[in-house]
Amino acid sequence: MSSTARVVIFLLAIAFGLASLFTGLVLYFWPHGPRSGQLIIVGFNKAGWSDLHVYSSMLALLVVSVHLIMNWKSIKLYIKCLKEM
After folding, report:
1. pLDDT means over runs of 10, the chain (85 residues)
2. pTM of the prediction?
């Protein structure tokens, strides 16, 4: 696999992870109570933010899984070196 593909996968993992973190924080600090779901923040209501959070989290998991598969040989070497210490 080329180094460009590895860099792209890494950057996608960072981007989707940060998106998941940001949307999770928005949802955590969202007001509670009646009619709070009608509130609009940056063009999205609570259901929209929830959808963004779910999709960005799923994409982050997918990209991290691809990243781990692509780097499995390196991971095995790191584990082997740690066992020898």
Report:
1. 87 96 95 83 92 97 94 90 87
2. 0.81
